[in-house]
Amino acid sequence: MVLTARQPLTLEAFAMARTGVPELHEMTMDGQVMRMRAISNLALPAGQAVVLRPGGHHLMLTQLQEPLTEGEVLQLTLKLRTADGKVVTQAISVPVKAHMMMPSGGASATTPSGMAAQPAAHQHHHGMAH
Ligand SMILES: [Cu+2]
Questions:
Q1: CA of residue 122 to ligand 1 center, whole Å
Q2: For residue 20, how far is its CA from the centre of ligand 1 (angstroms)?
Q3: 54: CA distance to ligand 1 center in Å?
Q4: Which residues are 23's β-sheet partners?
Q5: How far is the CA of 126 from the centre of ligand 1 (A)?
Q6: What is the set of domains in the chain, with CATH numbers?
Q7: What span, in angstroms and rounded, lies between the C-alpha atoms of 67 and 90?
Q8: How far is it, in rounded angstroms, from Cα 38 to Cα 58?
Q9: Quick one: how far is CA 59 from the chain centroid?
Q10: pLDDT tens sequence across 36-93
Q11: What are the backbone angles phi and psi of residue 120, rounded to the nearest 5°?
Q12: Which residues sit opposite 32 in a β-bridge?
């Protein structure tokens, strides 16, 4: 997923209906070992495309109540904070891909929050080793 903010925003949280504990994660290499950790927020500088993907920053969907199926469209709500401290929310749709790692053109959406979202599959099950 590529997020491009028109004004400086901070992604603080997100929500999805079927997810128990949605988390923002980042992955870093620690020597030869890929590590994943939760982060409290992610800066989205104005005009800069921030890529969310496996291996980097991603939205982690944990404690899914049912498995994701290819072709379904997830409805996520992003909680963002503006530079002057206001909270804005943005609904985005993310199509589920078979392998969850394939890039996707996807639909793009722009809302009054000044946020353009280009969804690509980025969510993964919490079964991965980390
Ligand atoms: Cu993760």
A1: 10
A2: 14
A3: 8
A4: 60
A5: 7
A6: 2-118 (2.60.40.1890)
A7: 24
A8: 10
A9: 4
A10: 899 999 999 999 999 888 788 988 887 777 777 888 888 889 999 999 999 999 998 8
A11: -140, 160
A12: none
